[in-house]
Amino acid sequence: MICSALDIAKYVVTFCFIKGNPISNLQLQKILYYIQGYSFALRDEEAFGEEILAWRYGPVIKEVYDFFSMYAAMPIENTFGIELEDKKFEKMIQVIALDKMVFPVWELVKQTHGEAPWKYTTELFGIGSVIPKEYIRRYFKEECI
To answer: How confident is the model at residue 145 (pLDDT cuts 50, 70, 90)?
Structure first.
């Protein structure tokens, strides 16, 4: 079952806040990128249908970025009443969020800039282009599992 990127984002923001480590919008964008990648690798399906764009500071889901833009670079100290039906998927999201939420935002930017999906997209199509889902699928299946 595919969720919306915004629902997953609200879940991640809530989870990180409850764990005592609220994240910024930019950190959230990177966590969503990793959720999409690991979903391809571990579940052989996308986590959400929205496109991921190769922005200057790494992968971004525009709809989610816009929703949380009011927080600017500040930690998102908020909770949303989002529950996920698929408990295995929820556990995967929690593991990724726990791993990535502790990295400083610029470290996450550096990580994503060094990975093939963002790197190849920006080299071939330029900043602001859609990162092809096949790039994400292939990278995470081959490099991360």
So the answer is: low
